[in-house]
Q: What sequence folds into this?
């Protein structure tokens, strides 16, 4: 049993961190896109469109999104079960979430800092890489922390739908076979994972914030 | 003329309709000069500064900088111009997660200048500004005055043709203010650096400005040498910066005339009052007097009462030899 829990934990960690990494990178990229579109007059239309898409994806419950994505997942990943298929689903669900969080952080950069960067003659690329990202780094770490913890629960849901990991273990052995001790162990491990993520993220963010 | 602004117009649109922010503003800045843009809050000072710095597009007008009209340039040209103008914002706007050293070196770093050169230029400037000991501190660890000096250093490091200072003293205590003004005058005199200072602080105007542009409700109400601006204040044409001393008849008994006399330039050092009084056999009673130390010389204000047969002649003679004279009563 210990072996099973160990393997399930590894699967869960794999899903959380791989999808977390992909969603952070792509989400921040989309967040930059949203931020820039909202600030450039002739791109206001594009912003409205992106905004709508992000809202739509964020309002679909994860469990429904997984079902809706089945044909896409099958096409892209070749299968709809297992950790890799779940990583695809989790990433798709997490990108709009991360995009919105990072957009909010970009919007919170004091306008004076944007003004003074502009007055130094930065181009748009430098603005993003040298000002927006560095100036929001502690916030973005906080955002990633929130994202990862959300992914812990999402992973458990995905587990119930055939992704593997602790969620699947808890449902299959614990719930369907009445082995409540397995449910308990799975929950304890999930809580520990969440705590560790929160602790590390918080500490990192505080260190950077000065 | 390093900067000359012709008929600048700017308006903002909001729910209540169009609001005029700048109304036909024209002014110019000579190389090596310090020009103050003064006025009350909401007069359009900061908007004017933002248009000069191309952060705010204008409705109409031209801005000639270094012989080139910089209104309506393409974005890449705008960026090139901006590198020649240093701006020190009211809120300093230092990068929050970069050290003082990194902040000051930032404008050079983004231009791809070599690390060793960045280092020598930054160190050179911080020693002049007295920030040597704070190089590794973060902005949140600095005092207001230090933050401002870091912001000035960051503007200076680009070797700009001109520096804009936006409300530089608004968050400084009196001692730090004095240090800042000394620094600005020193940079101006030593390096011939041109400054445009937006302010409503009389001390800044007195100590640093060669010329003053006075904005009222978006209109340029006055543009000229600082001492002439003080004449306007003393003769109550500008009331935004405190009224001159009110003189009332009851101050004084008898049939005396009361005069307000302003001295500036040559006449400040000569005993003109005494000489003129002696020649015309008039008695003088000094009611009030003060001297302001302006950048381009002392500026004196006297309120005097006079008594004697030849009062009218005295006034006429004195008018010739002082900077400004007004009969109060």
A:
């Amino acid at each position: 049993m210990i072996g099973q829990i160990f393997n399930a934990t590894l699967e869960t960690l794999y899903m959380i961190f791989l999808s977390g990494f992909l969603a952070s990178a792509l989400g921040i990229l989309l967040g930059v896109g949203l931020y820039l579109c909202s600030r450039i007059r002739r791109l206001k239309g594009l912003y409205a469109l992106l905004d709508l898409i992000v809202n739509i994806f964020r309002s679909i419950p994860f469990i429904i999104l997984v079902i809706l994505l089945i044909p896409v997942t099958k096409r892209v990943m070749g299968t709809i079960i297992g950790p890799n298929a779940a990583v695809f689903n989790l990433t798709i669900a997490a990108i709009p979430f991360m995009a919105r969080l990072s957009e909010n952080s970009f919007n919170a950069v004091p306008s004076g800092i944007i003004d003074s960067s502009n007055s130094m003659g930065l181009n748009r690329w430098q603005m993003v890489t040298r000002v927006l990202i560095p100036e929001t780094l502690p916030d973005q770490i906080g955002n990633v922390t929130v994202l990862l913890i959300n992914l812990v629960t999402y992973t458990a849901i995905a587990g119930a739908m055939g992704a593997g990991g602790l969620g699947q273990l808890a449902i299959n052995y614990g719930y369907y076979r009445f082995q409540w001790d397995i449910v308990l162990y799975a929950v304890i491990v999930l809580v520990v994972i969440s705590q560790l993520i929160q602790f590390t993220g918080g500490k990192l963010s505080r260190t950077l914030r000065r | 003329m390093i900067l000359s602004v012709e008929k600048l117009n700017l308006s903002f649109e909001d729910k209540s309709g169009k609001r005029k922010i700048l109304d036909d503003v024209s002014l110019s800045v000579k190389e090596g000069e310090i020009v103050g843009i003064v006025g009350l809050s909401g007069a359009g000072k900061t908007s004017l500064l933002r248009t000069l710095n191309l952060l705010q597009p204008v409705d109409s007008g031209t801005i000639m900088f270094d012989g080139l009209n910089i209104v309506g340039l393409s974005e890449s040209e705008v960026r090139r111009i901006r590198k020649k103008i240093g701006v020190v914002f009211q809120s300093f706007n230092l990068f929050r997660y970069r050290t003082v050293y990194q902040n000051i070196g930032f404008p050079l770093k983004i231009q791809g200048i070599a690390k060793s050169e960045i280092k020598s230029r930054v160190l050179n400037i911080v020693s002049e500004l007295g920030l040597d000991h704070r190089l590794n501190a973060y902005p949140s660890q600095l005092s207001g005055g230090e933050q401002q000096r870091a912001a000035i250093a960051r503007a200076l490091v680009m070797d700009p043709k001109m520096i804009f200072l936006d409300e530089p003293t608004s968050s400084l205590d009196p001692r730090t203010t004095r240090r800042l003004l000394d620094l600005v005058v020193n940079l101006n005199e030593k390096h011939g650096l041109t400054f445009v200072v937006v302010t409503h602080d009389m001390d800044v105007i007195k100590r640093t400005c060669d010329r003053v542009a006075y904005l009222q409700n978006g209109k340029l109400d006055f543009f000229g040498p600082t001492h002439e601006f003080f004449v306007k204040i003393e003769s109550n044409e500008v009331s935004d910066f405190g009224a001159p001393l009110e003189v009332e008849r009851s101050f004084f008994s008898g049939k005396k005339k009361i005069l307000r006399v302003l001295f500036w330039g040559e006449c400040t050092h000569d005993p003109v009052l005494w000489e003129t009084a002696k020649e015309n056999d008039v008695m003088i009673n000094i009611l009030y007097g003060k001297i302001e130390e302006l950048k381009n010389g002392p500026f004196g204000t006297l309120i005097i009462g006079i008594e004697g047969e030849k009062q009218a002649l005295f006034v006429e003679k004195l008018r010739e030899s002082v900077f400004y004279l007004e009969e109060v009563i």
